[in-house]
Design goal:
Blueprint (H helix, E strand, L loop, with lengths): L1 E3 L8 H8 L1 E6 L4 E6 L2 E6 L2 E8 L4 H8 L2 E6 L5 H9 L7 H5 L3 E3 L5 E3 L4 E12 L9 H7 L8 E12 L2
Antiparallel strand pairs: 1-10, 2-3, 2-6, 4-5, 5-10, 6-9, 7-8, 9-10
Protein name: Flavin reductase
GO molecular function, one term: oxidoreductase activity, acting on the CH-NH group of donors, NAD or NADP as acceptor
Family: Belongs to the flavoredoxin family.
């Protein structure tokens, strides 16, 4: 893994998150979980480079995010949609996602999990978190579309500081 500065990052994050998708991984090298996510973004907030992600409390990865201070966002490229499909549809409570997908974990110098297959990994520290609240929606049609019958609970939003940017060469 090679480290870049945030200012060296040239990715179109709209495409990377929305089309390529990402793996959100939290935990320790001994016990971690990962899940596919396609909601989020990046920018500057509070004078820091940040990412923001949204995780439903029923997801197994949520427990790991809540327990720790850090997490990674890994971008595998569109060629790895098969990995994303498994990590987005199967729970780590029921399967070993690393074994099921062939993911090859790498431990960062700060002790977080990245993957050999990742072309890009953002290593992040939690700064802020809050539940999405139905009474705060200004466009109430979004509630039915994304949280209506059978869609699941409201997400928790995390704003995380991007502390390291890793690329695999």
């Amino acid at each position: 893994m090679k480290e870049l500065t945030v200012s060296e990052l040239k990715d179109n994050m709209f495409h990377a998150i929305g089309k390529e998708w990402m793996l959100v991984t939290a935990g320790t090298p001994e016990k971690f979980n990962t899940m596919t996510a396609s909601w989020g973004g990046t920018g500057i907030l509070w004078g820091k480079p940040v990412a923001f992600i949204f995780i439903r409390p029923e997801r197994y990865t949520y427990e790991f995010i809540e327990a720790g201070e850090t997490l990674t966002l890994s971008f595998l490229g569109e060629a790895h949609k098969d990995i994303h499909k498994i990590c987005g549809s199967q729970s780590g409570r029921n399967i070993d996602k690393v074994a099921a997908t062939g993911l090859k974990p790498q431990v960062t110098p700060d002790g977080n999990i990245a993957y050999e297959q990742a072309r890009l990994t953002l290593e992040c520290r939690k700064l802020y978190a809050d539940m999405i609240k139905p009474e705060q929606f200004l466009d109430a049609s979004l509630i039915d579309k994304w949280y209506g019958e059978g869609h699941g609970n409201f997400h928790k939003m995390y704003i995380v500081e991007i502390q390291h940017v890793w690329v695999n060469e």
